[in-house]
Amino acid sequence: MTSPPPSDSRVAALGAGLYRAIPALLAGFVFLAAWELYVDLSGIKPSILPAPSRILTQGWLNREALIANTWPTLGATLGGFALSLAFAFVSSILMDFMPSMRRALLPIFIGSQTLPLVAIAPLVVLWFGFGLLPKILLVALVTFFPLLVALLQGYEATDRDIAELLNSMKASRWRIFRLARLPSSLPYFFAGLRISITYAVVGAIFAEYAGAARGLGIYILNAKNNFRPDLVLAAVVVSAVLTLCLFAVTLMIERLVMPWQPSGERRR
After folding, report:
1. Is-contact 90 236, C-beta < 8 A?
2. Is 229 exposed, middle or buried (0-12, 13-18, 19+ CB in 10 A)?
3. Which residue has the higher pLDDT, 234 or 119?
4. Is residue 134 within 8 Å of 77, Cβ to Cβ?
């Protein structure tokens, strides 16, 4: 029996994905319709609660300003996430090879996640200025811990039989790590990646609140000060779309890196 051509498989996967998205799309449509209906029937002022149609209209009319402020936020998000990814990967390797370092550093990393961002963000801006660096550092602070924990859990999930087989073949510790422990961590790593990427945009926007010249955080702050909740929510929609796009990119990278893993397993 011949297997279906790749194009048919992609079409089937796309159809299955759209089918799974129907409940979420219906729920979103019902929510927006109820919101629109409530605003129309209650007569509430747009300065208090704008209707979804007004948010979309004002967002389109102010699209140039929204786009101009999206690019700095995206730059801070990607820069901070890249730094977070590099730091988490290097730290996880060191902590896996040196258990004493793990015992010493892991409590510190856990403690770093208890710091309130509302308190630490102004200090980071004060120390490093109003440029891109403090925003990158704050995004990295928010996103590195899920990546680190996911990698460490992935290393621990290595099949013991594979590790013992490599050890019986006199493989070095680094070779065991590269051939067994690192591949076993990939599903955990991508789970942590998906969690972290959803925090990254929020972290960048919050960092801009603390001090920035441009960005969605500044745009939201200015719109709030001008009593324009429609523009505030339009910027929120842009940030949500940006987060969803980055999330989709992580799924695409996961599919490319782990093509052997069935899509059903990846979605569980």
Report:
1. no
2. buried
3. 234
4. no
